Amino acid sequence: MGFGFVIAKFQIFLHVLAHEPLSSNSLVGGVIMIVMGIATLLYGFYEYLQEEKQLNANKFEVRLTPMWVYTTLLTVLAVALVISLYISEYP
């Protein structure tokens, strides 16, 4: 989430230094990374609450499927973001 914020702000800084109009490619990429970070935070909190419930009930079960699905989804989204930013910068 912080890395997305840094990317978006650095892109603004570079355009201000170069006196160029601001393109939205890197800003969109930074915002998408921020949203992915918030989604990861919310998913982690949800998983924490589920595991805390299981521990309090003495019925803890390891669930790897949701973690793998979420990790795979985030990886695919990150790769798609990189490819789309690359294509938009170098047509």
TrEMBL record:
Keywords, alphabetical: Membrane, Transmembrane, Transmembrane helix
GO cellular component, as recorded: endomembrane system
Source domain of life: Archaea
Localization per record: Endomembrane system
Signal peptide location: none
Domain DUF202: from-to ranges: 1-53
Keyword 4Fe-4S: no
Presence of keyword Transmembrane helix: yes
Record-linked InterPro entries: DUF202
Primary location class: membrane
Regions that span the bilayer: 28-46, 67-87
Membrane topology: Multi-pass membrane protein
Protein name in the entry: DUF202 domain-containing protein
